[in-house]
Design a protein that fits this description.
Structural class: alpha/beta
Number of strands: 12
Number of helices: 8
Strand content: 15-25%
Amino acid sequence: MKSQRNRVYIKSKRQSPLPRELDMVRTHPAIILAAGASQRLGQPKSLVRIGDTTLVGMAYKKLDKAGCSPIVIVTRRELVFDIMQETVGSTVLSNPSPEKGRTGSLQCALLSLAGEKGRLPKGVIVAPVDRPGWTIAHVKSLLTLTTSAALAFKGRKGHPVFMDSVAIESVLTAKADASLRELVRFTEHVVEAPLIGLNIDTPEDLQTLSHHEQELLNEL
C-alpha cells in the first residue's frame, strides 16, 4: 500500500450538527462525493480508469492543483482503501448510509472538516466523482466567490459547485436523505465548459469518457 498520509474515518452513525455559534475558518477545502452505488455502470465510478489514473484520482489531483486543502472524499465502506491508494494525501471517509443520498455524504465530510478545532469553513467546493467535465481553472474561479454557485455553460448548470456558509449550515441541519437541490440555491457561474454535461452513469458513457480522455487529462 502507498503512503499512509491518508486519514480514514469509518463512521458507524450520523453525528449531530455542530453548534451555530462556532467560529468559521478561512480555508479552501473541497469534497469529492464518491459513495454512489453505481448500479447502472456495473463498477465503482470512482475507480473507472482514465489514462494512468482513475476518476477519483483525477478529481483529487485537479482540486489539489487548484489550491484546495484539505480534500475530503466520501465513499462506501468497501472502497475506502482502494480510494486511499488513488489519492495519497486526502482524507477518506466512509458514509455508513450511502443509500440515503449525497446530503448525508456531505454531512460526513463537513463534520470532518470541522476537525478538532470545532470550526467550519466559510465555503467549500463540492465535486461529484461521476461529473468529470471541469478544469483546474473552473475551480479557481469558483474559489473567488462568496455565495453558493454552480458552473454554467450555455444555460446548463454543472459541477463542481461552491457552497457558502449559509448552504453549509442548511446541509448540516437537514435530514441525511434530504434533497440538496431543495436545500441550496445555486446561482449560475458562467464559464467556458463544453464538457459540463459529461456524466459517467452507464457503460455507454465510458465510450464518451474515452473519447474525451486527452482533454480531461491535459492539465495533469
